[in-house]
Fold this protein.
Amino acid sequence: MITQDEARAVLQAAVSTGADFAELYMEDVRSNNVTVLQGEVEDAGSSHRHGAGVRVFAGLKSAYAYTADTSHDSLLATARAAAAAVRASSPAVIAPFAAHDYRIVPRIPFADVTGDRRVKLALAGYAAAKGYSPEIVQARVMTLDRDADVLIANTEGVFARDRRVRMRFVVQAVASDGHETQTGHEGPGYGLGFEGFDRIDPEYYAKKAAACAVTMLHAPACPAASLPVVMDGGFGGVIFHEACGHSLEATSVSRGNSEFCGKLGQKIAADCVSAVDDGTLDGEWGSIHVDDEGTPARRNLLIDHGVLVGYLVDRLGGRRMNMPVTGSSRRQDYTFAPTSRMTNTFICPGEDDEEAMISSCPEGLYAKSMGGGSVNPLTGEFNFAVSEGYWIRDGKILTPVRGATLIGRGADVIRRIDRVGHTMTMGQGMCGSQSGSVPTNVGQPRIRVSELTIGGKGGAL
């Protein structure tokens, strides 16, 4: 990385044409991955990349330039390139730096781990998935780890260092009866060093993915209906993340592209719904020590017993909205300018009996796990696949069903939540937006939505 004097010189070049704010972001990243497919190591690789970006503001105008060459001369040239896009008359005065070091050394650094240990984990997962059933015709298992050293400096006196470690175990199992196929997927991960694999049982997650694939292979097609839907914890939280969470980011709100614009202090959800985005949770997949603008992570209460009380705000969004930042600015890497993003986003635990959500339901759908989908932040309209679903009748699970989709609007869903359980679980994923793909957790206890449109191609069950 660079010294404070060097960083100050880069920032000075960035404001040379009158920008009222400038920021330098640098990163040095080392990654490892192992992929086992059909019992053989398909890929085993390591990568090392570094680079830097310079961003400038002049009021609500911004410009960003980046480079893979982090020599001092190249950083100065990058700063001048960003500055050239902004012409103003009130250049920022660079405040004295207040240095903060957020780096934490993991218990087992990835650099200390041999490739054989990674391969052993992946092979164990493969054997468990493939051995679950003769109908499992393919299994792919991956171990992934990433160690990033980051520096953020800006004209307001931020000079922050951080070390960001993450690891993940991913398994995909494919079941086939010779005519059709179904897929099961699991991807647990943590914001930890290699010690995170101590929390992950490869055989458990591999069998869980295989079980889902085999179960869905023999399930009838889901019928279409408008009925209560019980959503499990973990990936059930993807509905809130996608249909509501993105609409609470300044990325959308500050431009008037959100269904929740101008609704602070208003009732937008059922009384039983409180929701949080918390980047401070120790060791979680979506956690951060400090965001990509140098603001410490924090717990942000978004919805309090149905009332909208907060947004996720980055620096530029805060300028547009006249609101303070919330430690929510993130980016995929140095090639992206940061913007407001989620970290660990979840519906808070309630007090309802989770088994009673099913036993009290005359007919409906139990969505055990969610898949992919799409959402329009402006309207909140969404369409999500249910990767593992079960039909409820007379308070009991009647049969697994496949091909179910959930269709609706985020604002309607959170108003129709009438039960919130007490056992919180989270699911790990990668969230894409205008600043790239970042690791996020989605979570909730088991919840029930009183009525939701269920799409499917099946007939009567």
Remarks:
- The radius of gyration is 24 Å.
- The first strand starts at residue 21 and ends at 37.
